[in-house]
Every structure is written in C-alpha cells, then in structure tokens.
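User: My collaborator sent over this chain with a note saying "see what the structure looks like." That's all I know about it. Can you take a look?
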Amino acid sequence: MSYFRAFIVGGGICVVAQILMDKTKLTPARILVAFVTLGTFLGGLNLYDGLMAYGKAGASVPLPGFGYNLAKATMKEVDKYGLVGAFTGGIKGAAGGITAAIFFGYLMALIFNPKTKE
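Assistant: Without extra context I'll predict from the sequence alone. Here is the result:
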C-alpha cells in the first residue's frame, strides 16, 4: 500500500507541474523554483509533514520535498546554533542528495560516454 500512496502523491505533484506547463506561460525553470519555494514554506510551517508521512518517497523525491528538506535542516540548525544555523542548515541538509547526484551523474557519464547534441 505504501507504493500506491507514494505513486499517488508523487504523481499528483507531477500532474500539477504538467498542468502548469500546459495551461500557463510559466517556463519549467519557474515551475521548478516555485515548487522548491512552496516546499520550503510548507516545511517551515509544518504543513508538509502530513504529506511526507502519507506519501513517503512520493512526497520527498519531487521538488517540494527538496524545499522541505532545506527548511527542516535549517530549522534544526537554527535551534542548535542560532543565527549561524540559518546559513549552514540548508547546506548540511542537502549535502547528501547533491553529492549523490554529482557522483551518479559522473558515473553515468563514464559508463555511457555522452555526446553533445547537434
């Protein structure tokens, strides 16, 4: 059942993004920024917690989940270190995901020998 919930939540987020691309003049880059910002605000207000508990990976993997992760890590660091935590929290919270993206991207580039488009 958890796979189904993750599919529904993650798919719902993707459907909203696709509708925004189809029905508005928003570019994918602006939608990306809007989703990360929305996840940050909802995470900061503890409103995204319920969606995370219900959808698990379906809520944490898409872009709002990245914003949520930044907000939660920053709040934790601010509680621990004060104002300095506002500058270090997001970096510490996102470091694992960013490191994995760079590592696996590099690994795929070595395996598949990418070429530029003409």
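A starting point for your reply to your collaborator: The first helix runs from residue 2 to 23.
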